[in-house]
């Protein structure tokens, strides 16, 4: 059975969201309609799993590949962070 880590609210979660959201804004550009910080880390004062959940809303989700052309470095950075989190929280 996997253990779920819940930590006290951290004011840095808002800053972490903004940092990742800015990367997504650069990736999707004008195709981005909205971006949302969701989940428990988005609720001030709430204890939560320390995972920043983000939903980008784009004009055409069928054309994702064209959004990332020329922005592979940003995409790789986001993927790397996700892999590091997965390794830390699920493998080790």
TrEMBL record:
InterPro entries: GrpB/CoaE, NT_sf
Residue ranges crossing the lipid bilayer per the database entry: none
A Pfam family recorded for this sequence: GrpB
SUPFAM superfamilies registered for this protein in UniProt: Nucleotidyltransferase
Name of protein: GrpB protein
């Amino acid at each position: 059975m996997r253990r779920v880590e819940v930590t006290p609210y951290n004011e840095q979660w808002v800053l972490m969201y903004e940092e990742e959201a800015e990367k997504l804004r650069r990736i999707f550009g004008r195709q981005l309609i909205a971006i949302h910080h969701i989940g428990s880390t988005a609720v001030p004062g709430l204890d939560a799993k320390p995972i920043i959940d983000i939903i980008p809303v784009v004009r055409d989700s069928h054309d994702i590949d064209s959004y990332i052309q020329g922005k592979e470095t940003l995409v790789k950075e986001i993927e790397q962070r996700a892999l590091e989190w997965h390794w830390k929280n699920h493998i080790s």
